[in-house]
Amino acid sequence: MEFQFDLSQIAQQQIVKIDNTLLPVGYQKDDPELQMIISNILDKMGEASGIAQELKSPITSAEKLRRSDHTLYLMTEHTPQGHVVVVGLLKMGWKKLYLFNKKGSRTEAMVYCLLDFYIHETRQRHGYGIKLMEYMLKDNQIQARQLAVDQPTNKLLQFLWKYFNLSKLVNQGNNFVIFEEFFESDGYLEKESGHDRS
């Protein structure tokens, strides 16, 4: 998606991490102009994501990010014409969920959740999605099986099966989806027992 303003400040790296300040994580100064640019991007990309998922309203916007402790990964690309375009977004956040394993036992855990994932239609099937996902996983030192996914589309479920061999869903009593392998992960066991990773 192309925008009619200078994106050079957020396109120094292909993937930029944004928090509820509406600025890149680690950005050292107050910058209302950059916040306005990022807000515009998040609103437009969030709207496009909502349309792609056939949602009644977007689940990502600048205001929603500002009021949360979520993290958003924004992917950009330099075109041969010298422009910067926004390729996709990935929104993540911790949530306390009641989870059922495949035996039907219920437990409560803090889980890192995939809340929104969108690659612009003009850039799909070119490897951008897996690059963005792998960046996020490496940044958080976790594996895909440790995630809960909020209302995944069939396309996202196919993506997780293709790249991470995750296909065995465990039905939950909420909008989140987890996989059988989730309960085998160290991250889950540590969260369940109340100990964070050091």
UniProtKB/TrEMBL annotation:
InterPro entries per the UniProt record, alphabetical: Atat (IPR038746), GNAT_ATAT (IPR007965)
Stretches assigned to the N-acetyltransferase domain: 1-183
Signal peptide positions (record): none
Gene3D superfamilies: 3.40.630.30
Protein name, per record: Alpha-tubulin N-acetyltransferase
Record key words, sorted: Acyltransferase, Transferase
Domain of life: Eukaryota
GO cellular component, one term: microtubule
HAMAP family named among the record's database cross-references: mec17 (MF_03130)
Entry's Gene Ontology molecular function annotations: tubulin N-acetyltransferase activity
